[in-house]
Amino acid sequence: MSTPSLPRAASATGVLEPTNDVLVFEDVAIAFEDKVVLDGISFRLPRGETKAIFGVAGSGKSTLLKLALGLLKPDSGHIYTLGEDVTQMPEEQLFDLRRKVGIVFQESALFDSLTVRDNVAFRLMEEGDIPVDEIDRRVREALRFVELEHTVDMLPAELSGGMRRRVAIARAIITQPETILYDSPTGGLDPVTSTTIVELIVKQRDVYKSSSLLVTHRLQDAFVMADHCFDPKTNHMRRVEPGGRIEVPMAFMILRDGKVIFDGDIHALADTKDEYIREYIS
Amino acid sequence: MAAGDFLSDIQFISPIDFAKRKVQSLQEYSVLAAQSIANLFRRPIYGADMMQQADLIGFGSLPIVLASVFFTGAALALNSATTLSRFGATTVIGQLVSIGIVRELGPVLAGLVVAGRNSSGMASELGSMIVTEQIDAMRALGTDPMKKLVTPRVVASVLMLFFLTILGDFMGLLGGSVVASILLGMDAHEYWSNAWQTLVFSDVFMGLMKPLVFGFIVATVGCYYGLTTKGGTQGVGRSTTEAVVAAMILIIVVDVFVTRFLMVMLGS
């Protein structure tokens, strides 16, 4: 089992010294009423890497993503998102930081009274100074990325579960954020739709070099992402040859009882001797 | 279910915890109310959302406000006529209806009707957004829900209730006029002349200040209960009911204090 090394000390201003990490958790703990959900979590997400987070239901995976965006405040510890300590920032400043990070919620969380176009364009419309033509162009581009251009005028209620997730991905990527947080993007979907979503995440990782945290229950999705890369020529992902030149920037992290019990790449995961982890991944 | 099982399912909280929760709720409500005003002076200002809410709250509530104040004015004229006829003073019905509607019944009725319709609507809409993570999504997308959702509703409620009260007052007087003319055989000109001449500045001022306060209560209470919704769809239903009850009670209680305050201020 590998354990994460702790990040460097923050400066007196609450801003992390420039590093290659887009996200750093430092001894973070949070409890809801009497239930401890995260207990001294420390890990880092290097720039360009996708880290899949596993754990049983209620192990604090979704909480972790909300903490990273400052949507929740931890009871103790520090969280540095894009170098800034979100645990110390007032809500007003967090809004600026959040514009640089995309998130796909577990149940999509699309605004049900807005059309797909307005959902995807939400961030751009909030900027206030972007021409409508430019907004429309970028909305169509984002929807084309998730292959849902034809749904632009539809309401979320008219879409299937898989389509809603893809619209949520389009909404998250429209400003091309350098970090994207995915909360169970394939949960409850059929295998074909799941593969489509996994392919989109791989495409985002390999084409736009985004860093991401991926919360999932589906081990097979993360394993596919670890041994596939996106081929722009065919517009599909393809398996990476073992021992080949291409190195997939993919890591795995497992939570148990509020603690990180594994943080490493697929080879370390395959070689682990931990009984619980072996049973979990079998 | 046995009585023992039922009792064991009930969670008792100590009076101190109960008091703490109430104080915390009051504190949270006060913060929300203060922020809703402070956001008027911070960019961005959501003008389009304010217009949309004004349409929903103002135009949407128009028929029920007009109808309720119209029939209250009519009932007030009928009840007054019974008492006044004993003294042979039915000619002052116009004055009585006018003072009653403009100073008190118009603003309070409009406030209660708008609270019933819109506090519940706001609580259920925002509550649904909470349980489906849409509020979290909005925050995650870099937008302040207080600015985007609460302030436009507060501004729209305050402005629209002001205008609804003016129209409601007129309808209340009209209701009184219909009863006075058709059922009591009074001269309509005499009724309107009495009603108009009896009103002084303090009556109108008091009648038009109250809806500003009531509109603020309607929106802030509705938004507060919506944004503090817990417990899924059942929680949304609970928030909706609590919002209507709290807004209505608050309007009735605050009305007494506002009336007293304005009477002292205006020396009437």
Fold and architecture overview:
The complex is a heterodimer of chains A (282) and B (268). Chain A has ten helices and twelve strands. By secondary structure, chain A is an alpha/beta fold. Chain A has a domain of 67 residues. In chain A, the strands form three sheets. A six-stranded mixed β-sheet of chain A has the order 6-7-8-3-11-12, with helices on both faces. Chain A has a four-stranded antiparallel β-sheet with strand order 2-1-4-5, with helices on one face. In chain A, strands 9-10 form a two-stranded antiparallel sheet. By secondary structure, chain B is mostly helical. Chain B is elongated, with a radius of gyration of 22 Å. Chain B is 85% helix and 0% strand. The chains are: A alpha/beta (282), B mainly alpha (268). Chains A and B meet through helix 2 and helix 4 of A and helix 5 of B.
Features:
heterodimer, A: 282 residues, alpha/beta, 10 helices, 33% helix, B: 268 residues, mainly alpha, 9 helices, elongated
Report the portion of residues of chain B in β strands: under 5%
Ranges of chain A where pLDDT stays below 50 over 5 or more residues in a row are: 1-13
Largest sheet of chain B: none
Number of domains of chain B: 1
Report the oligomer: heterodimer
**How far apart are the first and last residues' alpha carbons of chain A, in Å?**
16 Å
How many helices of chain A does DSSP assign? 10
The percent range for helix content of chain A is 25-40%
Helix content of chain B: over 70%
Number of strands of chain B: 0
